[in-house]
Amino acid sequence: HRDLHLSLRRQRQMCIRDSYQKVHLCMLVLLMKYLKKRKNNEQKKLNINDKLSIIVEDLAKQKILASIHSNKRIKSASTIKVPILHAYMIQRFRSNIRESPWEKKLIEDMIRFSSNPRTNSVIHLLGGTNNIQSLLNQTKVYKQLRLVEYFPVDGRAYRNKISVADLNRLFVKIWYKLIFIKNLLSFLHYIRVVNF
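The chain above was modelled as a monomer; its predicted structure follows.
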């Protein structure tokens, strides 16, 4: 998964040079190329039981272009860390958490370095899996999210699940809020320039 992330990040930068409408299609092509490359590599051969879940959305038109098993609940692996971060940010925004340097470090290690022990510390800080699940259910963003246990220390498979559609809804909300903030800042800058 780390190889896919790094490879796609580099290639995505090339895609962005084109129009935003082509980015999603480009990402799908890159993913398919990666899977084909992985399939041809004997050491990293795809398992017949591997399942693909994907959603491609045109953000400009707010339209789903392609969807494969997007609403299917799948094992979340480290992607569950994104909703955990979402819960943390909600609690921080509500002033239920006062962020200290230690908590900043926990979050950085959880997201940047994908640290499972740090993620468990964040889950504990937020009151456990049931509390996080309840908090995230209130957002109405997640429909298939099931956060039922901490990350296992022994590396065994665990029961936390999420869908690609859930992650897409969250990322789309973040995208539009960033666009809104960027436009607001540009507008405020314009007013400042005009008034001075």
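The beta strands are 54-58, 63-68, 74-75, 161-162.
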